[in-house]
TrEMBL record:
Protein name per UniProt: SnoaL-like domain-containing protein
Domain called SnoaL-like: residue spans: 10-122
Pfam family, one: SnoaL_2
InterPro entries reported for this sequence: NTF2-like_dom_sf, SnoaL-like
Amino acid sequence: MTSSLEQLAARYGEAWNAHDLDRIMAMHTADTVFRLHLSAGPEVVGVDAVRSAFGGLLTLFPDIVFRTEVMTFGNDFFVHQALITATLAMPLPFGNLVARPTGQPMTFTGVDVITVADGLVQRKETYLDISAAQQQLGMLGEVAV
């Protein structure tokens, strides 16, 4: 038997991979919170602000795809580790540096810690292997292996 949390996680992932912002946001609470943990990024609070942030991400990476590697469930949360493939569509600032579109897809790992309240996403904390993305965008020098 599949739990309601597992069903929510599956629907949520499908909506993200379909780039369906309406479906994504229909699974969020009105007081939802999103935080992308990059350079001390601020919390984005409220459904309208989160919708705008997600819309911006889908504009930056219009072909983004999440392939689940690990999914872990708790009582009122789930953790989703995914291999992300995406092509940067427009310049993206990283502090004093700016990533420029290369036209080539990049692949990097991401982890979402998602807290659920009343069957909806209340909080989405996102962590990305940003150094892998920066390297693929030519922002970092060659890395010795």
